[in-house]
Every structure is written in structure tokens, then in C-alpha cells.
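Regulatory protein VirG
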Amino acid sequence: MVRQDRTDARLGVVDDDASIRETLAGFLEAEGYDVRCAADADGLDRLMRPDPLDLVLLDIRLPGVDGLTLTRALRARSELGIILITGRNDKVDRILGLEYGADDYIAKPVDERELLPRVRNLLRRVGHSRLASPTETLRFGRHTLDLGRRLVTDETGGAVPLTTAEFDLLAVFVRHPGQVMSRERLIAASSHRRFDPLDRTIDTLVRRLRRKLEVDPERPSLITTVHGAGYLFSA
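Structure:
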């Protein structure tokens, strides 16, 4: 059962650097979270056996099974929140991580003042996706978006699997049909991240949404690019 009090959320910190594990765990525990640590994929597997995690902070460069491979495996079987811990120059890996289903990332050295709101925001989004009841349903193209249940279905009623980040971005688009949305506005509305002109998170998520929703992802008609301005959603 998902906890109603999100400060009781169960977090995992997975990093092969003991000092980073201890620092992050100590900080998050001081904020009231139940934090468990692991140094590698096997350790994470042991953490998740007795009680599923709500969110995991996952180093992208783990020994053995790396963070990208772990992200893909976790997303295939779980809706937990995934925040990748990356190096400052790991831009390609960040994009791959988002492609594989990560919800967010944060660069080393980790700024605790930046980490905490990201953890809180993602826990709120993940918790809402599990606890919400049906409230508002919106139709677009061949699909239906249920905001309360955080569910997207196609014309046959089949569920379209979306990550938390994908759903949040799609919800922004569906609520603003016919409007050109800049990357800065989309980031602010969907994730509350600080805007970075070099951040390609939105582009990556749009590409993933196109693959899942468009009839022809190479010639999108639902989410189109407005060069120099952003994206346009056509319901």
C-alpha cells in the first residue's frame, strides 16, 4: 500500500561511492524519509524484496549492471520514481536514461537544496498516480486521458504505458491544445525543474510520446515542432 504521508516514503540510494550514499541517506533521513542504501544492482534487488521502494536515486555509472540497464529493468516492472545521479558531462547518458524510463536526473556533486524539491515533487506525482480516483477525462485523437487515474487508453480501450514524466508532459499538452508551448514553459508546467537552455529533457519526452501515440512518429500530427518556438499539440 502506498503511504498517505509522503515523508514516510521508502527511498533507495544506489551508488558505489560509500561517501555519497552516506551523505544522501543522512540528508534524506533528516527530512523524515525511510532510506535504504545499496552499492550495486544486487544490493538494490535485496532492498526491494521485503517492501517495494517508492523512489530510487540511481547512480548511472554503477559497476557490473550499470544504472541505465537497471533503469530499463525497473521501469519494465515498476512505477516507482527514478532519479538518475549523473556526472556533469553525462549528457548522452541522461538522454538515454530518460529514454529508458527515468523520471528525472541530478548531476554530481549533488546539491541537497536542489535534490529535496525534486524528490518531494516526484513522490507526490508517483503517489498521486497510485492513489487517485477518476475525476476528469479528456479525449484527443484516438486516445483518452484520465487525469484522476493517470491513465491513457487507445480506441480499443487498451492502456498506453507511460512513465510519470511522460504522463505529466502529455497532460500539459492536452490541457493546452492549439497553443505553441516553449520548452521553458513545458518544463515549468510538467516538472517544476529550473530551465536550462541546453536541457533536452522535453525533446526526449516528446520523442517518446510520439512513438507511443502517433500513427507515424516520423511524421507527427499530434505533437508538432514549431522551430524556434517549441511544440504545438493538435487535439
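Residues 1-6 have pLDDT under 50 and may be disordered.
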